[in-house]
Amino acid sequence: MATDTATFEKTTTTPDVDNVDAPDSGPAEPTADEVAERVFAATVAGYEALSVYVGDRLGWYSALKDRGPATASELAGLTATHERYAREWLEQQSVMGILRLDGYSSSGQQRFALPSGAAEALTDTDSLAYLAPLPRMLAASGSQLPEILDAYRHGDGVSWEEFGADARDSQADINKPWFLHALPDALRGVEEVDAVLRRPGARILDVGCGGGWSTIALATAYPSAEVLGVDVDPASVEMARSNAASSGLGDRVQFRLADAASLTAGGYDAAFAFECVHDMSRPVDVLAAVRRAVRDDGLVIVMDERVADELTAPGDEIERWMYGVSLFICLPDGMSSTPSAGTGTVMRRSTLQRYAQEAGFSGLDVLPIEDFSFFRFYSLQR
Question: Global pTM?
């Protein structure tokens, strides 16, 4: 979410030099011990995030939710995993504060329970609090660290395809509940957007559709519309088609493997770019193609990260998260094709405005959609 930036008015009054306070030197620099504590805490958090990845991918959280309190041997039996590793993970999760100690079995083994709040955040794929997929992005970047270091040395990148299933699944699964359960009401709540999408036979373009949940949400919210999702990643397009089929919309939405910068067909009433412009190597070319593809009385809407308008240091947790993802996923992905704008996750409002203007738009407005995960909605103006 965006941080507030204080503004200071200049004064033309000449100060009384006898009463001028010493210049504000800003926050005190951290001591060596404070930095060491920060690095230690960050490392603990990193390991804990990976432990969530393990519980998510091995089905341990789901098994505990479905069965109830379990011992290590019971959990291992339910999930076809090794008891010794299950016991270490269960103990670690209880020390972490995710699981609750729940007495002993008749054989004297410690039982562990998954509280309801943790079950929702870690297993309920329809909940807006569902965050279990988040550590998958960390795992995806970890698997490519040698390649990322090489990219840092030589200026090339690591593509979304190379980051693999963990990155694809993470982004698709973390956004799914927001797209399916929050996006329809968010769009209906903006009258000028809703009116365009309700046009009889409206044609809607979803650029960078990823796993397709945004495309599916648009088609569900506006059943008379024709919706096309476009993405450059073959595995993502296949995932989108599978998700549409499982949602019963396989005949109402289409997905195409294509670079949006090469769009030639026009006549769309609206185009959306959900959380993808900052990843694009050539965002101006894509936005220019989208502008040409949309009717003059249509809409072009970009949903991207809700970062602060200016760099402020130190920043809040959201800014820190965004820079982390940028360093290890989005910037290497954007740099994997040349030429590259090298945007990165932290695409500030002024950067998007510059891209929009270079693409032929007059500017952008922020839509009145609040509290939508980590995102802000922009409407690009003709």
Answer: 0.90
